[in-house]
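[09:14] KT: can someone run the structure on this one? pasting the chain below
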Amino acid sequence: MSGLTRPICEVVLPWNGQMAFCRGWEFGLIVFAWRGKPGAVPPGLATRRQLRMIGLRPNGQGAQALLWFRHRKPYRREEMADLFRVDLAAPVRPLNAARIFALDKAMAARRWCPQCQRDVGYCVPTSYKRCWTCFEANEYAEAC
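[09:31] RB: done, structure tokens below
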């Protein structure tokens, strides 16, 4: 069981000088555990998704620490996620008209069937490279 956990150690956090429990070091960064009283993530750090949920982005800062957690899927054993400082994060850039137009154009290209040359109203599967109507018609023709 000792191979499944990381040892708990105490470090001084470089960004605020406070003492905190961690789960060691990896790639030169402090590793915190996802759950657990000793070694849990101190306040002021967040993952990319957590920053996005509160309307922030990392703003070019590098990872300040790592979050260690175990994955449910057996072949993925353990995962590491970057942790960023919330006080250095910046607000998310709003979408402007040009970006909205570009996104609309890209989504329209994904809805276009190259075989029947029409907008089918849903994203064409990349595995078949045609809409379902064309795929079924082709499968029916091959079966007969």
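[09:33] KT: thanks! The first strand starts at residue 9 and ends at 12.
[09:34] RB: yep, looked fine to me
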